[in-house]
Amino acid sequence: MVRNNLMIIAGEKAQQHIAQHGLSPDNICAIPAAAGGPKGLILQGLDHFLFQDFFSQDVLEKRTQKGIAPLELIGASIGAWRMAAAASNNPSKVLNRLADQYCDAQRYAKNVNRQQITEVCNAMVKEVLGSAGAEICQPTGKQLMVWVNRGKPTLYKPRAGVHHEPRKGGFASAVFSNAWNRNKLATYFERWVFHSGSEAPAWLSKPYDGIPGHFAQLSASNLHSALLASGSIPFVLDAVPHIQHHNGNEVFEGPFWDGGLTDYHLALPFHRKEGIVLYPHFSNTVTPGWLDKFLKIRKAKPEWMSNVVLICPTPEFVARLPAKKVPDRSDFKRYGVNHDLRIKHWRLAIAESHRLADDLSNWLQKINKG
C-alpha cells in the first residue's frame, strides 16, 4: 500500500491479521531498527510517534497488565542508538538528543583520522545517554537488544596494549567469502546480542544461520560500550577492545565492531514470533548483512518476513528531500567541511520525516475503524 509519503509493505500473515483485526499496540511484538548511519535520521518522525504516542508509557503498562510480553526493540549501529532512546522513560527527549548530537557533533576536519572519529562518537553516545542509562537497561514494558560483532583473529593484527588493528586483507577475504556463502562469515565474526532483562530472547536462541551467536545482559556498566561497539565501522572507528559483563566485575574480550556487518537490516527469523513485527525502515528492501549491499539478489527470506509490516518513505517523498535522497554517509564527502550546509539539509530531512508519522497515524486510524 502506498500513501502520499509512506509505503506500507506487509507479509502474507501480517496482511491477514490486519484485514481481520486491524493493528493495535497489543498486536505488535517487536520493532527492528537497521544499521545505516545518517539514514536513520529520516525515521525520526516515525520514532517520535511510535515511542512517545503509539507506545506511550500508559499503553505499555496496560500491555503488561494484560500479560503481553515486553515490546522488543532490536537495533544495530544507528538503529541500536535509536532503540536505546526508545527504551528510555522519555523517548522524544532522548531521540531529540540523538538527532542533535548526530547532526551537530560530527564536524570533522578534512584530514580527520580514525582515532578522532572514535573520540567524537564516544562523546556522542555519552551525551545521548545522559543520565538515562539505568532506565534504558530496565525499561518498563520493553526489552532492548543491541547487535554487536566480535571479530575473529582473521580480521586484526595484535598490537601492544590492544588487539583491534583491522587487517585489510582479512576484511577483503570476508567480502569474497560472504559473496560465495553468507555462512562463511562464521570464519570472521561472532554475533553478540546485548539485551536488557535477565532472559535472552528464546526465538533467537535456536540457530538460524551459520554465524555463531552469543547473548549478554545489558546494564548501566556496559550499555555505553555496547552502543559504541554497535556503531564502530571497521577502518572508520576503532573497535571496542572489550565490553564489561553486566555485573561490572568481568569483561568480554573483543575486538567488537559494528553490528550491521552481519545484520545490516536485521533480516531475522521473525516468523518464529507470535504477533506482528512493525519495521520502520529507510528502504523498501531488507538486506541481511552490510557486505550484502553489493549483492543485489541477497535479500531477507520471504518466509521470515511473513508477519512483518515494513513502513518506509516513498520515492516521491525522497525526491522532495534536499539532494533528492535520504541522508547517508556519503554526505560527509559531498559537503566536506561545509558542515553548516550538511546540518541544514539533515535537519530539513528530519523535519520532513514527521510527514511519514502523519501518514502512519492516518493509516492506523483507517484500518482500525473497520
Give a brief outline of the structure.
The protein has 370 residues and is an alpha/beta fold. The protein is built from 13 helices and twelve strands. It is globular, with a radius of gyration of 20 Å.
Structure write-up:
This protein is of the alpha/beta class and 370 residues long. Helix content is 38%, strand content 19%. It contains 13 helices and 12 strands. It has helices spanning 12-21, 44-54, 57-65, 78-86, 91-104, 114-129, 133-137, 168-180, 202-205, 223-230, 315-319, 330-335, 339-369; strands spanning 6-10, 28-33, 71-76, 142-151, 156-159, 162-166, 189-195, 213-217, 240-244, 251-258, 276-280, 308-313. Strands 1, 2, 3, 4, 7, 8, 9, 10, 11 and 12 form a 10-stranded mixed β-sheet that branches. A two-stranded antiparallel ribbon has the order 5-6. β7 (189-195), α9 and β8 form a beta-alpha-beta unit. α4 (78-86) runs antiparallel to α5 and α5 runs antiparallel to α6 (114-129). It starts with 5 loop residues before the first strand and ends with a helix. The model has no long low-confidence stretch (mean pLDDT 95).
Number of strands: 12
- Mean of residue pLDDT values: 95
Largest sheet properties: 10 strands, mixed
Strand content: 15-25%
Identify low-pLDDT runs: none
Give the N-to-C terminal Cα separation.
17 Å
Q: Would you list the SSEs in sequence order as H and E?
A: EHEHHEHHHHEEEHEHEHEEEEHHH
Fill in the keyword field for this structure:
370 residues, alpha/beta, two-stranded antiparallel ribbon, globular
